[in-house]
Amino acid sequence: MAQTLLMPKATAIWLVDNTALSFDQIATFCKLHPLEVKAIADGEAAQGIKGLDPIATGQLSRDEIARAEGNPNHKLKLSEPKVRVPESKRRGPRYTPVSKRQDRPNAILWLVRNHPELKDAQISRLVGTTKSTIEQIRDRTHWNSANLTPMDPVTLGLCSQIDLDMEVEKASKGRPLPTAAELGATLQSAQETERLTPSYEREEEKEKEIDADAVFRKLSSLRSAPKDEDDDQY
Fold first, then answer.
1. Mapped to the 3 state alphabet, what secondary structure does 99-163 carry?
2. Which partner from 8, 163, 205, 226 sits 20 to 30 angstroms from 19, CA to CA?
3. Beta-bridge mates of residue 2
4. Residue 219: Cβ within 10 Å count
5. Residue 44 reports pLDDT greater than 50
6. What pLDDT score was predicted for residue 114?
7. Is the backbone of residue 64 left (phi > 0), alpha (psi -120 to 50) or beta?
8. pTM
9. CA distance 109 to 115
10. What is the pLDDT of residues 27-41, one digit of tens each?
11. Among 3, 23, 193, which Cα is nearest to 85's?
């Protein structure tokens, strides 16, 4: 049995509307990402969800909220609950609401392009899909490949930013460091750069190499040509 916050998003909405707590304090207490809390405050997320008063549900006390408002570094603590909620153990892929299932291919394409280090099992956990669907999108054999558009699964509401960051961090562990070829061009050594001459010096050298006599001969031939044509007319 573990002490768990009930309805974290609804609680975050109430705290944003009714307290002076910082986004970080609310995010830590509700186990959300600070950007999610900011989106709630801006009205860009959690629209249609009614705020839940944590004081009325016995999850927070007024003294605890006042203490946190006076100290930005204070972390809110849950009040001792009257009922213990067992910790949920999720097995298999994440459940996705029917209204958002059409967005899963776009989210998978975004993950495949922006986080190639993620394994199929991790993508399946994040957006609640099957490995065969992920393989079809990777190979561009999905029936709707031509109409797919990469979209952030966090923006679509298919997963939280914290879950995505955790999966990316797991996938990055043990990954070999990028080679010099993957990083692209590197800086040249000091010995090589010292041998290079400035571009303006090379241009001056080219000008010096031009033969002055050849230039004057060309100019004189251009001037004499019109005179010869006039002589032929007479």
1. HHHHHHHHHHHHHHHHCCCCCHHHHHHHHCCCHHHHHHHHCCCCCCHHHCCCCCHHHHCCCCHHH
2. 163
3. 85
4. 10
5. yes
6. 92
7. alpha
8. 0.40
9. 10
10. 999 988 999 989 988
11. 3
